[in-house]
Design a protein that fits this description.
TIM Barrel, eight-stranded parallel barrel, binds (3S,4R)-3-hydroxy-2-oxopiperidin-4-yl beta-D-xylopyranoside, 10 strands, alpha/beta, about 40% helix, about 400 residues
Length: about 400
């Protein structure tokens, strides 16, 4: 039995969903067409949500009526949510000490999911990015080799005197026990370690992060052990990007097999799937999922989007700066049609691998709130209207059902 496949939506949520879907469906049909329904035999369909959606409060980049629309669309279409930022260390645990945690936004996120019958997923406990400097700070001078501009990941990372291995382990344990413990039983899956694999050639498996430099490679196993102690029933994921790249997949296999040999509780693989429209499609995703499935663990597609910005077509990386800045050159030509084709392809691969794929999460509700908004990478536009890519994805589900009914 797949642990994620039982779900129920409260009647009020369903009514809202029906009304909204009937109003927004591009095909003008009177029956609602909902992603979470059409794929219910296959996998959960979720989305990352920002703080405005979780709290329902507009302002800033999205006015109140736009946020109302974002909330309605989220409730209608999805049965799983991930906090886009509010559970990252920088946001949930910005200061050292007993009062160092800011739980309110994360609490609002979890309550939003519970209220509307959507599974909240926790993202993320240990990552080289969006982690406050105090976590790594101490009195030990950094090694000369670690402060140069060539040290991977260090450009935006803390470069001052460092804490010891023992103290960093202690900080990590406290953080994981506190955060996972607070949401025990409410959050069913956690991204325990995010993006620990190195980019580039096969010789270097692990990213040269401060976690690796200060603790050593066993920081990964320890993170999973602490999360398991805090909630033995939670599904613990290892999450990374670029798993469409055969070199990176081999690194994943090396890392996860080694953790499995040590008996470390890793329960699922998260493949982010921040894709580019030039390369995304059935073949690429089919190959990637086939390789990942060999680990014998469930697969969660955790951050799906497909960039159509011309400037975003260069690499397979998911570097935050490069992605957010990928605006030059506007969109590729015929972006809507190419996006629809690419989405149809990757969803055909998800359906093919549905025995492994338990969950597909879009990284954002619509193009306007996407971290790659200049690349219009999602199924809904900034007014929450479905794009041709939405229809293409729905068609994949319809075809899959027709085939299985035969
Ligand atoms: C991104 C968010 O979408 C942005 O709002 C934020 O400014 C930076 O992080 N991989 C991850 C996600 O695991 O947490 C990142 O989310 C995208 C890349």
């Amino acid at each position: 039995m797949k642990p994620f496949h039982q779900n129920s939506t409260p009647a009020t949520g369903w009514m809202m969903a029906w009304l909204l879907a009937a109003a927004t469906c591009s095909q003008g049909a009177d029956a609602p067409i909902l992603l979470r329904d059409v794929f219910k035999e296959h996998f959960l369909v979720g989305t990352a949500i920002n703080r405005s959606i979780a709290t329902g409060v507009g302002g800033g980049r999205r006015a109140q009526d736009q946020v109302d629309g974002d909330v309605a669309l989220t409730k209608a279409q999805f049965n799983q949510i991930t906090a886009e930022n509010d559970m990252k260390w920088q946001l949930i645990h910005p200061r050292e000490g007993a009062d160092g945690y800011d739980f309110a936004p994360a609490d609002a996120f979890v309550e939003f999911g519970q209220r509307h019958g959507m599974h909240p997923v926790g993202h993320t406990l240990v990552w080289h990015s969006q982690t406050p400097n105090w976590v790594f700070a101490g009195t030990i001078p950094p090694p000369e080799s670690a402060t140069g501009p060539t040290s991977e990941g260090s450009r935006r990372e803390y470069a001052g005197p460092r804490t010891s291995r023992e103290e960093l382990i202690e900080r990590m344990r406290d953080h994981i026990h506190t955060v996972v413990g607070r949401y025990k039983g409410k959050i069913k899956a956690w991204d325990v370690v995010n993006e620990a694999l190195a980019d580039g050639g096969p010789e270097k498996v692990l990213r040269d992060s401060l976690w690796l430099q200060i603790i050593g490679p066993d920081y990964i196993a320890k993170a999973f052990q602490y999360a398991h102690e805090a909630d033995p029933d939670a599904i613990l994921r290892y999450n990374d990007y670029g798993l469409e790249n055969p070199v990176k997949i081999q690194k994943l296999v090396t890392l996860i097999s080694s953790l499995q040999e040590q008996g470390v509780p890793v329960h699922a693989i998260g493949t982010q799937a921040h894709l580019n429209v030039s390369t995304a499609g059935f073949d690429q995703m089919d190959r990637s999922l086939s390789e990942i499935a060999r680990l014998g663990l469930p697969i969660h597609v955790t951050e799906l989007d497909i960039n159509t910005a011309s400037g975003g077509q260069r690499g397979t990386g998911a570097d935050i700066g490069a992605n957010a800045a990928a605006t030059q050159g506007g969109q590729v030509s015929d972006a809507d049609r190419r996006l629809a084709d690419a989405y149809a392809g990757v969803f055909r691969a998800f359906v093919k691998h549905h025995q492994s794929v338990e969950m597909v999460t879009f990284w954002g509700v619509n193009d306007a709130v996407s971290w790659r908004r200049f690349g219009s990478p999602l199924l809904f536009d900034g007014d929450n209207r479905p794009k041709p890519a939405f229809d293409a994805v729905i068609r994949v589900a319809t075809e899959a059902r027709a085939t299985s009914d035969q």
